[in-house]
Amino acid sequence: MKFTEFDFTQEVLDGLDAMRFDEATPVQAQTIPVIRTGADLIACAQTGTGKTAAYLLPVLDRLVQEGHAGTTALILVPTRELALQIDQQIEGFSYFLDVTSLSVYGGNDKALWDQQKIGLTKGADIIVATPGRMIQHLNMGYVDFKSVKHLILDEADRMLDMGFHDDIMQIESFLPKENRQGLLFSATMPPKIRDMAKKLLNDPQEISISISKPAEGILQAAYVVHEHQKVDLIVDLLKGKDLPSIIVFSSRKSKVNDIVRALKRNDFNARGIHSDLDQSERVEVLREFKNRNVQILVATDIVARGIDIEKIDLVINFDVPNDAEDYVHRIGRTARAKTKGVGITFITEDDQVDFYNIEKLIEKDIYKCPLPPDYEEGPVYNPSAKMKKKGKKRFGKKPGGKPKRKTNK
Fold first, then answer.
1. What is the pLDDT of residue 327?
2. Which pTM does this prediction carry?
3. How many structural domains does the chain have?
4. Is there a single domain that holds both residue 65 and residue 19?
């Protein structure tokens, strides 16, 4: 379905044309008509499916048609990175529109706080905010949300995982109750999301797109390794490869710097990003990576969701994520917009059950590559044995049975 079929205003179509948006993705094709009716909506769609444009375009179109005074749309997101990304997309789509936007997120920079305060006081048309920082501004008394017509929650499951439920409900209390559209976008749909939706939305329609399945263009593979083999393996895999853009995910902040140092020792252009960096450093690292001035970005899951960088050639999971859904978000950084990409995962002996759960979730057995010939043999991949071991008695008690008596023999 082409965007011209949605009957958007010419100004919106001009913005789409300038950004070379021609054909709608499935999530856009299904959600845009619903959003334009004014109905509340729950949409389940994984990262990289185009959901940001799915809610931004109808909102921008309505702003053009109906005019605007004060803040019309509030978009809540889990991270500052996602807030900045969405704000940049608004700037692109509204290039030919008289629309203002503001990103509101945390940080210790007083100048940043003052800039956000000025923008909130003036009343930007669209505000993209992290819940914690938005609450801080609201409690100061100078934010006017009386004209808000759209409340949009993006990556709602991640916000709840990060403990933002109470902040979201408090923010909602500052918004008008009547004539307000609620849109909730989430990659997963656990019961806690539905419970929150009942409080925030009014008789919402529901749409699900490709839940928890990696894009078809991703070639997935894995190596079963010992922990001490990982750093050498990542260096050997990347040597001599002409891959301009690579992301390496580690579950531990402590490992990020170790990986970066190992890559730099082998003449790779690599930088790390994690939550211990301040905001200016994180923005600078991401900008350098996005501009192809950095080849390899080593990251924690802080960037697994919400960073829209085109043409990622390879994603390497240095560690298997504990949550199977996070695997989908990680490798979802590649093969976006029908392109091709590769996702490789390192599996240690302790990771095997978690990786089995990933394969079960995506309904696919991922190929286990042999280690290079000069490597020590890795662990045997046998997750069923690991599960049996985990299921055995603990402290003398069998699962579902009575405590086993100790005997002296």
1. 85
2. 0.67
3. 2
4. yes
